[in-house]
Design a protein that fits this description.
The chain is an alpha/beta fold. It contains 14 helices and twelve strands. 41% of the residues lie in helices and 14% in strands. Strands 2-1-3-4-5-6 form a six-stranded parallel β-sheet, sandwiched between helices. Strands 9-8-7-10-11-12 form a six-stranded parallel β-sheet, sandwiched between helices.
């Protein structure tokens, strides 16, 4: 059996792999295919051939160059929607010119989705970006590519129930399965002693999408709290009263050290699908505050606290509760750790393999 795995340009980008915690999932998918007995072919696209002028240019240039390399005798294709349409169309076309088409046989086309569907992203973010005078990069072409790819494939593998829900408005629900993301609870583990003070950790590269504005408003005037930011910069001029320690972009290998010096993590994201930092914080024994879609991984007020989108007052109440109730905070962190230990990457790979085994 032969499988084509076309994960996009990030798979080969050493800088992305250095800072992003999710890139190893690409290796995990490839391992899963190999463990199922597939000979795996991965297109290799020279970075010089990828046009970075826009998101659409980047997607199309990768997809077209990768399509030119594909073996036409593959039994299966796996890739993300944006980078896969031209490749899937080429594989479908090969069936038309062979006897396989008449027999209804051809390569099975799988797409994995890690983010919410475009309609949800638009609903959550389009007006938000306008509010801050920032461009919202979701062109009609990008939307068309994503939607057409999802309609073209045979099956979709989502990373969470929430992501499945958003895509179920684009393709039939029975066309979507879930391989839930896990966490390495051996790599991410609690410190032996809780650190001094009260340090609140925020992780994210986009302050608008990640809801940093609402967190900053909630923290204004709050005493005995220091906000640690890994990734983006806050809106400096709007929040002079918040005590901040900034780390900039942090290599993923160093995230554990930072988490072990904090008391909790807050992820008031407006649109994420699933936030790996939430599960890594739980594995590190931290209590977590986050918004509805990324709160799927825990039980409200037991292993974390769920707050509504843009709910500044809700964020403030949750922060004060965790600051002023250390016994409950520590208990919540221990329960979060125990839950994270059940959400392993082996679980993710097993669910992924089961989907392929049943649908291929």
């Amino acid at each position: 059996m032969k499988a084509i795995f076309s994960p996009g340009p990030s798979y080969f980008d050493s800088e992305v792999r250095k800072f992003a915690g999710w890139t190893h999932i690409l290796d995990l998918y490839r391992e899963g295919l190999e463990e199922l007995g597939y000979e795996v072919f991965v297109p290799e696209v020279d970075p010089k051939l990828i046009d970075l002028a826009s998101t659409v240019s980047k997607i199309l240039s990768y997809d077209l160059v990768a399509a030119s390399q594909l073996p036409l005798d593959a039994d299966l294709f796996l890739g993300p929607p944006g980078y896969s349409l031209a490749q899937m169309m080429k594989l479908k076309d090969r069936s038309v010119t062979t006897s396989e088409f008449e027999a209804g046989i051809g390569p099975k086309l799988f797409l994995y989705v890690w983010n919410n569907s475009d309609w949800w992203r638009d609903q959550q973010l389009e007006e938000e970006y306008k509010r801050f005078g920032q461009p919202y990069d979701m062109s009609p072409t990008w939307r068309w590519i994503n939607r057409t790819a999802l309609e073209t494939c045979d099956h979709v593998i989502a990373c969470s129930p929430w992501v499945k829900m958003t895509h179920a408005k684009v393709v039939p629900e029975d066309k979507i399965s879930i391989a839930f993301w896990g966490v390495d609870s051996q790599k991410f583990s609690p410190p032996e002693v809780e650190p001094p003070g009260f340090n609140v950790l925020f992780v994210g590269g986009d302050p608008i999408r990640k809801g940093l504005f609402y967190l900053m408003r909630a923290l204004e005037g709050m005493e005995n709290v220091e906000l640690w930011i890994a990734g983006c910069s806050p809106f400096h001029d709007a929040h002079p009263l918040v005590k901040i320690r900034q780390f900039g972009m942090v290599p993923h290998s160093q995230m554990l050290d930072i988490m072990r010096q904090c008391h909790m993590l807050i992820c008031p994201t407006l649109e994420d699908g699933i936030a790996l930092c939430v599960q890594e914080a739980m594995a590190s024994g931290l209590s977590v505050i986050t918004s509805p879609e990324t709160a799927e991984v825990f039980e409200h007020m037991e292993t974390g606290i769920k707050v509504d989108y843009r709910d500044t007052e809700g964020i403030k109440r949750a922060l004060l509760f965790l600051r002023d109730n250390p016994v409950q905070r520590v208990s919540m962190g221990k329960k979060a750790r125990a839950l994270a230990e059940t959400q392993t990457w082996e679980m993710t790979k097993g669910q992924f393999k089961e989907v392929i085994r049943e649908r291929a």
